[in-house]
User: What shape does this take?
Amino acid sequence: MTKQWGPLTDYQWAAISPFFNLRRKRKHNLRKILDCILWLLRTGSQWRNIHPDWLPWQAVYYYFDQWKKANLFERINARLNQLDRQQQGREPLPSVLCIDTQSVKLSPMIYEHRGLDAHKLVNGRKRTFVVDTQGRLWVADIDAANRADGSLAVPLVQHILWRCGERLEKVFGDQAYNGVFAAELADWRIDFEKASRPESARGFVPIAKRWVVERSISWTNFFRRLVKDYEYTISSSVNWLYLANIQIMLQRIQHKNQT
Assistant: This one.
C-alpha cells in the first residue's frame, strides 16, 4: 500500500469511469473531483481547505454528497473487489467472510450516534467491517460505540447476502457474534464459526481467520480521515470506509497490471 496520495492513473480511472455519466457536459472534470475526494481521505483535511486552484470545495462536496446518496461508492467498491479477486484467480464473489468491529473517537460537538464503549473506553462510534479472506471490505456499517457487536451485525445479514449472493457458506467472528447474529445466519443456512484464542493464552495471539479482518481495520490508519470520526452523518462515515477500500483496490489492480 502506498502511503502518499497521488492522482488517479489512466488505468485506475478507466476501471471506474463506467460508473460515471461522462457524456453530459459539465463545468468540472469528474476525475479531478474524485482526485480531490481521495486527497481528503488520505490527508484528513477539511472540505474548505481544498486549494482553490484545484476546484471549489463546494463543488467537490456537492458531488460527494450526490454520489453518497446514490450508493455509487458502494457499487464501485463491490465491482473493484470482484475485479481484484478475478485477477487473483478467484471467483468474483466470496464464499467465506470475516466480521469484527472497531471503536473510534467522535469529533466534538457531534452527538448523533454517539456512545461509550466501556470495554475500550472510547466515547464515539463503532464501525462494523465485513471482509473476505484477503481483507477486501464488502459491507460496512457504523453506529454508537455502546451498541453490542452482535445486535449491530444482525441488520447487515441481508445486505451481506445481497452483495455476496448464494456463494456465501461461512462467516467467522468472535464470541460477540455467537448469539443473535449466528442464529440469523443459521436461518439462511450459513455457518458461523467462532474464532477465539485459547483461554490459557497470554498477551497478543494471532487467531486464524480473525487476523484478516483485524489487518483490514489496521489499514484505516493509512487514511487520516478515518483515524477519528469527523462526520455528522453515519452515511458519510460509511462511505469514507468504502472509499478507503476503493483506493486500496485501485492500487492492487494498478500493481497487478504493471507486473
